[in-house]
């Protein structure tokens, strides 16, 4: 799929086609806007995109065929719940890709890229502090997603290998971004630990310790895998 457009852009361009809705929704799911198992109502989707229910349903059926969503009899569509095996397999590959990206980033990261990594870590910390101060989960989730996207995109950018980035992007259709947020369920202890893991990776990259950066990135994803599998067992 090509880069998707937002619901607003779809409406603005009057590109009210099944393809446009399916493409945009697939990107939103891949970006982690919808949590694992989240229900997607045809009526709400039709309203968001300014189409009738028929194109909305057809778009969901198309994503069902791709394995992005699943249809539950008499209930509708929801973001597909991956199996524990799906999670393990995707995380294993992501670990290899992100570990190698971190290894290369330790050799190639610029001062500006290092600054972005540390800024992302600061944003993770701000989310944890905000939750402890009583901020809403909606506020925290949006900021966590942004920090997570900034951190990991910067690692791949610093690695300087476009094929690594492309391969990683393809995996997000199998296991959407930010599923670890859903697995941590706003638990400040888990979020703080996750922030610590990101900071350790950033420091290893800054110190040009490629082997440590790779190992920490892989361990970070293994922790995410365990959390996701436990969450899936709750949702099943």
Automatic annotation (TrEMBL):
Q: Which Gene3D superfamilies match?
A: GntR ligand-binding domain-like (1.20.120.530), Winged helix-like DNA-binding domain superfamily/Winged helix DNA-binding domain (1.10.10.10)
**InterPro entries assigned:** GntR_C, TF_FadR/GntR_C, Tscrpt_reg_HTH_GntR, WH-like_DNA-bd_sf, WH_DNA-bd_sf
All copies of domain HTH gntR-type, residue ranges:
15-82
Keywords from the named record: DNA-binding, Transcription, Transcription regulation
Does the UniProt entry include the keyword Transmembrane helix?
no
Reply yes or no: does the keyword Transcription apply. Answer: yes
Q: How is this protein named in the record?
A: GntR family transcriptional regulator
């Amino acid at each position: 799929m090509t880069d998707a457009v937002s619901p607003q852009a779809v409406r603005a361009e009057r590109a009210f086609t099944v393809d446009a809705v399916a493409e945009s929704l697939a990107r939103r799911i891949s970006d982690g806007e919808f949590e694992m198992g989240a229900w997607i109502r045809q009526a709400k989707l039709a309203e968001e995109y300014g189409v009738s229910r028929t194109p909305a349903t057809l778009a969901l059926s198309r994503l069902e065929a791709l394995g992005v969503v699943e249809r539950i009899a008499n209930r509708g569509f929801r973001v597909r719940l991956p199996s524990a095996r799906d999670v393990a397999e995707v995380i294993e590959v992501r670990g290899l890709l992100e570990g190698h990206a971190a290894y290369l980033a330790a050799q190639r990261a610029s001062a500006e890229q290092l600054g972005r990594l540390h800024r992302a870590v600061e944003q993770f910390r701000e989310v944890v502090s905000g939750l402890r101060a009583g901020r809403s989960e909606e506020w925290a989730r949006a900021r966590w997603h942004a920090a997570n996207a900034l951190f990991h995109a910067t690692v791949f950018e610093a690695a300087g290998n476009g094929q690594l980035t492309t391969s990683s992007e393809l995996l997000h259709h199998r296991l959407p971004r930010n599923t670890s947020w859903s697995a941590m369920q706003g638990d400040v202890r888990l979020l703080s630990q996750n922030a610590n893991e990101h900071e350790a990776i950033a420091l290893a990259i800054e110190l040009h310790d490629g082997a440590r950066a790779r190992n920490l990135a892989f361990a970070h994803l293994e922790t995410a895998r365990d959390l996701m599998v436990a969450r899936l067992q709750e949702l099943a």
